[in-house]
Amino acid sequence: xxxxxxxxNIRVYDWEKFKPFCVLGPLTRGDYIGPPHETLIHHGKxxxxxxxxxxxPYLIVSAGWDxxxxxxxxxxxxxxxxxxxxxxxxxxxxxxxxxxxxxCVTGSLLPHNAIELWSIKEGRKIMxxxxxxxxLT
Length: 137
Prior knowledge:
The protein is about 0% helix and about 45% strand. The protein has no helices and eleven strands. The termini are far apart.
């Protein structure tokens, strides 16, 4: 299983020992696994959602406040694809990431078109699904 949060790291745990065997991200004090990487390829802000890709147990999808969806490969312990890395990417602020086959769906804080469909294989957004957030009165 995997966890993530405000320190911008993803921790992948050994199920039997309940201890992390791998940390993905900009690595903070006390989590040193290997040489640090450039933070531009990792999440720049809090990570809110992490999912394994069922058809490939070595791949993880993550999303958070930095307007990006990232695909991580546990074999190389780094990001292999980054999608939506500009202001038009999803701003995930909850557990709003679903993965099925080669696709993932994100639910974002955006006021319009908050639901987006992404191709994991192609590494790009396919479409925004029409959805207008209800107005609070």
